[in-house]
């Protein structure tokens, strides 16, 4: 661990992504992980030099285009550290130092890269949460904004122990965002039509992508168990997320708390960090109260 000028403690870590090992055992490699992404990278931040079982921890997953630790560190982690909450920031596959050499910025080169990114993020998040839990940390939360919020939801659904979860400005799936939504405008549909598999379930690339991305819908994942350990943060003027998204969240997680902020999608991410921090604190306190009474 190293200590910076804030008085808190930090440690960078890495491990071989479990997805690499899973693909090596699989007969098919439809979700091939590029060599640059094969090693998971993270930053651990702690209010104390030694990790204590009583210290609550949040795992923060990256939103679209978050290639570095910077925004999550300054906007969310540092305020939480002052309240005694530790954090781990994960760098996504295909982002930052894990970005494939031929990839330009955040623009994934293949549709399958989007699925591989999500699958890899969830599997690596589960590894980190198990590491914390096995080390004695039981007050755990997984959180993220936008894409990171959707991945946090998937992770919480698949984690076998009680955990708090805070999805902020998150869609219910990647489907609308990358087909009918704003990011769909950046897809080269003509080229994708030309590459459409012969056995595709649809006659054009857009409909085929909608079919494929249904895999990312939260309704395909079990809801984390109640009582309330989930706080959803939504923006009143979000044009990235489907207008029906919040209703879908509420039907699938009827026991979760919903908090609205006056912002759009991007302004929410940039200027509503305090609301996200408050949701994480409250979700962790809720899970602590539930554990104490159980």
The parts where pLDDT drops under 50 for at least 5 residues are none
- Gyration radius over CA: 19 Å
Largest sheet: 7 strands, mixed
H-E order = EEHEEHEHEHEHHHEHEHH
Q: Could you tell me the mean pLDDT?
A: 88
**Strand proportion:** 15-25%
Structural class: alpha/beta
Share of helix, binned: 25-40%
Total helical elements? 10
Protein architecture, described:
The chain has about 290 residues and is α/β, with parallel strands linked by helices. About 40% of the residues lie in helices and about 15% in strands. It contains ten helices and nine strands. A seven-stranded mixed beta sheet has the order 1-2-3-5-4-6-7, with helices on both faces. A two-stranded parallel sheet has the order 8-9. α2 packs across α10 and α3 packs across α4. The mean pLDDT is about 90.
Q: Brief description of this entry?
A:
The chain is α/β, with parallel strands linked by helices and 294 residues long.
Name the descriptors.
single chain; 294 residues; alpha/beta; seven-stranded mixed beta sheet; two-stranded parallel ribbon; 9 strands
Secondary structure: elements and pairs:
Layout: E1 2-3, E2 9-16, H1 18-25, E3 39-46, E4 57-61, H2 70-82, E5 86-91, H3 111-134, E6 140-145, H4 147-158, E7 164-168, H5 175-178, H6 189-194, H7 205-213, E8 231-235, H8 245-252, E9 257-261, H9 265-271, H10 273-293
